[in-house]
Amino acid sequence: MMRIRLRTLVAASGALALSLVSGCAQGGAAGSSAHTVTYWLWDANQLPAYQACAKGFEKENPGLNVKITQLGWSDYWTKLTAGFIAGTQPDVFTDHIQNFGQYADLKVLEPLDDLGIENSDYQPGLAANWIGKDGHRYGAPKDWDTVALFYNSKMTEEAGLTAEQLNNLAWNPKDGGTFEKAIAHLTIDRNGKRGDEPGFDKNNVKVYGLASNGGGFGDGQTQWSNFAASAGWSYLDKPRWGTKYQYDSKTFQSVVQWYFGLAKKGYMPPLSDYNVQSNQANTQVAAGKAATAFDGAWMISTYAGFKGRDIKTALTPVGPTGKRATMMNGLADSVTKASKNKAGAKKWVKYLASDECQKVVGRYGVVFPATKAGTEAAVAAYRKKGIDVSSFTKPVADKENFRTFSYPIASYSADMTALMSPAMEDIYGNGKPVSSLDETNEQINLILSQ
């Protein structure tokens, strides 16, 4: 699995500890030397692709070896944070945009301005996202993902919904539009009544029309983000390094009220049914407990592998602005400031960001690499597996009808997440009014103004 979603990786106390010691953590990166570059990643599915890239790199750079360490998601970030403090961090690591602002502020990343990274060499926006507030580059584009609607084709066929209909849904925060009608119709209670039929029992649901991925924290990537963006809302006052979050927006709050209202109507599981470890949206679909789920491109192979399920994908619905929307997120490779082999590390990162490596990664059909040639290789690889990925690639190519947007890039992202997580769960799970986000937004912006 490529990524689950990074949460409070560096809590306020952790960030303080890091800021106090990062300047004196001069120990060599674990296992690094003049002849070795240490590289960390978290996705086991991508490990073979990067092992293949390492062989190519070592052939081009005699005398340099790449030592790859793959860690599970939670262990990865825990050990990386500890490594920054103790001086045992790798030379190069796979970076996540959510943590980029915090790492850049703490000055634990090495500038990569000399790598010759050009925006035009990558899919739109990917390279620009890794420029810090100081104007320096701290990440080389690695891959990207968008969000689409996965659906159980047997369930949609039984409900009389065609692929064409699912790809032409529209929504609004007042009555939910054709999207809510479809989700209601796909919902079935214990007595066989559908969500749009008289006598439907919302308290005893057998199959939910839409799976739940939780409250969405402050980004809502696979929850409410496509709805909020297609309603015209943005996280911050600026696309990158904004100074004010906008969770107090009436537009945003109307979207959140409608979205979590789907659970109140019985069309989406209650928050109590969701579990980040054992009952995510994909688990609900695999078990036949939900007919559809919004999820990211990193989950394509997971859904395709569900036994006895023919899972297909549809585009995100058209919103009040007349456009569809999806977050377009992307990982990068970063070099650590305390690396003892910066020259070798930068050579490896430049190679990772090249067409040569990214086409190799693309051919494994696990992720969409950041370069256009790498993306094309991935699309071809998925096609060979019989998987149509157009629901994920079309938003990137069709700017007239789609709005793609980044994960919110700002300082103190861990603090924002720490405040928004319980706030959204209170609305979803405890019925707290959406107006409560006014106070949360004020608290976040107070921290951001420091």
TrEMBL record:
<keyword id="KW-0813">Transport</keyword>
<dbReference type="GO" id="GO:0030313">
    <property type="term" value="C:cell envelope"/>
</dbReference>
<dbReference type="InterPro" id="IPR050490">
    <property type="entry name" value="Bact_solute-bd_prot1"/>
</dbReference>
<feature type="signal peptide">
    <location>
        <begin position="1"/>
        <end position="27"/>
    </location>
</feature>
<dbReference type="InterPro" id="IPR006059">
    <property type="entry name" value="SBP"/>
</dbReference>
<keyword id="KW-0732">Signal</keyword>
<protein>
    <submittedName>
        <fullName>Putative binding protein</fullName>
    </submittedName>
</protein>
<dbReference type="Pfam" id="PF01547">
    <property type="entry name" value="SBP_bac_1"/>
</dbReference>
<comment type="similarity">
    <text>Belongs to the bacterial solute-binding protein 1 family.</text>
</comment>
